[in-house]
Amino acid sequence: MAEKIIAVSAGREITETEFNEFLSKLPEQQQAYVATEEGRKQALTQYANYFLFEKLGYDKKYDQDEAFIATMEAVKRELLGQYALTQEIKDIQATQEECEAYYNEHKAMFVKEAKATAKHILTETEEESKKVLEEIESGAKTFEDAAKEYSKCPSKAQGGSLGTFGRGQMVKEFDEAVFTAEVGKIIGPVKTDFGYHLICVDELTGGEQSEFAEVYPQIMQQLTTEAQNKKYMEVRQAMIEKYGLEFK
């Protein structure tokens, strides 16, 4: 089936396939616009203009200007260098066996981040904290109501809720108490530099080992990148030994 011709610029036929390829290489922020009818028409005009001005360049022999030739040489040097490197590393990819071995040797790296969802009540003294705890345990007040009434932390407006946070985000004493707590059980008073806390952990997640299948893509990318970088350095060193490199 013959290619659909959508424009002819300076005698150059522009096919729908090549134009779509041109569109696909535009920056991501332009993709939504060129997907519209108006945007597509404007992009086609831009693409057609390349051939008009290319023709102008040949007509006026701008392609023979020294400045143009120097620019083309610089562009060629950069593109050829990039292409050569790409060719050298294109077939380098970590194997599944290598990834599995890395996973088994570095399992500690693939433990899911521990997170907690908790609420607290902050008081200035231990006595105040114990008194609030008694009220909650007696059923006189819920934890949330007690937080709104007694807590010195801005979280009191949310019933003491601190939302969800990861291990190490809170001060040491608070962090250790939360991540060793029994879910749903009030603990404290816990002393920190801020005062005394009553803490209730609503949920604890993470801390377990990730399965190999979960982290395989991550390991594959890491090992492949490392192998490609190693190849790059080997090729570079070989070229230096063959042709030399000296900084003045």
TrEMBL record:
Limits of the PpiC domain: 113-203
Molecular functions (GO terms): peptidyl-prolyl cis-trans isomerase activity
Coiled coil: none
Entry EC number(s): 5.-.-.-, 5.2.1.8
EC supergroup of this enzyme: isomerase
Claim: Glycoprotein is one of the keywords in the record: no
Keyword Isomerase annotated: yes
Highest taxon above the source species: Bacteria
Bilayer-spanning residue ranges: none
Annotated keywords: Isomerase, Rotamase
Pfam families: Rotamase (PF00639)
PANTHER family, per database record: PEPTIDYL-PROLYL CIS-TRANS ISOMERASE HP_0175-RELATED (PTHR47245:SF2), PEPTIDYLPROLYL ISOMERASE (PTHR47245)
Protein name (database record): Peptidylprolyl isomerase
Biological source species: Anaerobutyricum hallii
